[in-house]
Amino acid sequence: GGRRRLPPGPSRLPVIGSLHHFLFVRSPLAHRAMADLARRHGAPPLLYLRLGEVGLAVASSPAAAREVMRAHDAAFASRPWIPSMRPAMERGAVGLVFVPYGALWRQLRRVSVLELLSARRVRSWPPGRAVNVGVRLAALTADVTMRAVVDDRFDRREEFLRAIEEGSRLVTGFSLGDLFPSSRLVRFFSGTAGRVMDLHRKMFELMDCAIRQHEERRAAMASTPDGAVKEEDEDILGVLLRIHREGGLEVPPTMDIVKSLILDLFSGGSDTSASTLEWAMSELMRNPGAMEKAQAEVRSKLQGKPSVTEDDLHHLKYLKLVIKETLRLHPVLPLLLPRECTEDRKVMGYDVPQGTVVLVNAWAISRDSGYWDDADAFKPERFEDGKIDFKGTDFEFIPFGAGRRMCPGMTFAQGIMELVLASLLYHFEWKLPAGMEPNELDMTEKMGMAVRRKNDLCLRAVVRVPVPTPP
Ligand code: HEM
C-alpha cells in the first residue's frame, strides 16, 4: 500500500491541471518550455505535469532517459494517440509511428528496418541525380526519399510533395494542445483536426494513384521477355505490395496500413533530414573555422571527381562529426516522439502511473553543461575520440531515441545527410548575405513536424565544381 509518490512538478489545479503554467511560459517551443519549467522546480530528472486529464512525465537527464528507454523499455513502448489523428487511426489507418506496441508493430518494424532501410538501398541511389544541388534542401531530401519509398516515375509526385509540405505545416509537431483529449482549453490550441482529415484523405487518394501506377508497370514488365521485376530493383512500396499480395506475414497488413506506413516513412524521413541539414549549414556559416575544415576535407578526398557518391562518404571523417554535432545542438525532434506508459512503473524512485504520457527532453540533455563542456558551442571535434555516438546507448546523446522504438531510419538518414552535405560543400562556396557577420546569423527555431529555422537560410552559392547534369 502506501501513497503514490509522483515525480515533482508544478502545483496542480482542478480541471485545467498544470495548463496555466504553459500559458505563461514565453517560449511556444515545448522543449524550451519544459526545460524552463524543470529548472524552476529544482531540475528534477523526471518532471510531472497534469495537462487536462492527461498525466505527463518529462525525462530530463540521461539516467531518467535510460530508465524509460532501456530499463523499462517494454512498459513505455507504445505511443499515445493524439486526438487530431484519432479518426484515421480508428479506421485502421495506422502506420509504424503510432501503431501500438505488439505483433503488428513488430512486423512493420522488421519490414522497414530489414528490407526497406538497408544500406543496400541507400547505395542504390543514382548519384548524379540524387545531388541535384541548388534545389532547396527540403525539396532535395523529399526527392531522395520519394525515390526510395514510392517511385520517381510517379505521375503526381509534385502534388504529393506539396501535400506533404502542407502536412508538415499543419501538424505543428506534438504541440501541447495535441496531448490532451477533451478539455475545453484544448480547442483553444488546436482546431486543426478537420484540416488534418482533409489532407489525410488527399494523401490516401494520391497513394491509391501511386499504387495503381505501380501495379500497371508490374503487369507491363511481367509480359516482357525478362519477366518480373527483380526484388532488388523494387522500391519500398513495391516490397510492401508484394508482401500484401503474397501474404506470408503473421498479421497481414491491410492496404490502409500499407499506405499509412509509406506516409510515415516518407514524412518521417524528409522533414527531419532536411531540417537537420539546414541547421548544419547554419552552424557552418556561423563557424567559419569548421566550414573551412569540412570543405578542405571534401575537396582533398574528392579531388577531380565529377560528384560525390556513396563510396566517398567513409573518407569524410570530419563531415560525420559536423553532422553529429548538429544533431546534438539541434535534435529536430527535441522531445523525441511521445511514449505512453502501459503499466504502473517506478522510474528514478518515483511512481509513473499507467496512462501517463512520457516525453524525453533530448534537447535539454544534449545541451546540459553537466555532461558537455562548453555545451552551447558548435565543436565537431568533441566527437573526435569516437566515444559517444547517437546509436541509442549513450543517453546524453539521443537524437534518434533509444530502445525498441528508436528511429528505424537512422542509417538511411545518415546516408542522405552525408551525401547532400558533402555535395553542397564540394560543389559550392557559401557566402552570407553582403554585410552580415557570421555571429549575426539568426538561429531562431520554429516548430513544424520537426524543429526548423524560423527564418529561411539565405546564402549565396558560388560554383566551385559544376554539378553534372543528368543524362
Ligand atoms: C535526422 C533525421 C531523423 C531524426 C533526428 C529522427 C528521429 C526520430 C526519433 C527521435 C524517433 C522516436 C524514437 C523514440 O521514440 O525513441 C523516430 C522514430 C521514427 N522515425 Fe525517425 N528520425 C530521422 C529520420 C528518419 C527517416 C529517414 C525515417 C524513414 C525513412 C524515419 C522514420 C521513423 C519512424 C517510422 C519512426 C517510428 C518508429 C516506431 O515507432 O517504431 N526517421 N525518429
From TrEMBL:
Residues the entry annotates as binding heme: C407
Record-linked InterPro entries: Cyt_P450 (IPR001128), Cyt_P450_CS (IPR017972), Cyt_P450_E_grp-I (IPR002401), Cyt_P450_sf (IPR036396)
Keyword Metal-binding assigned: yes
Domain of life of the source: Eukaryota
Protein name, as recorded: Cytochrome P450
Organism the protein comes from: Panicum hallii var. hallii
Gene3D superfamilies membership: Cytochrome P450
GO molecular function: heme binding; iron ion binding; monooxygenase activity; oxidoreductase activity, acting on paired donors, with incorporation or reduction of molecular oxygen
Cofactors named for this entry: heme
SUPFAM superfamilies (UniProt xref): Cytochrome P450 (SSF48264)
Family: Belongs to the cytochrome P450 family.
Keyword Glycoprotein tagged: no
Keyword field: Heme, Iron, Metal-binding, Monooxygenase, Oxidoreductase, Signal
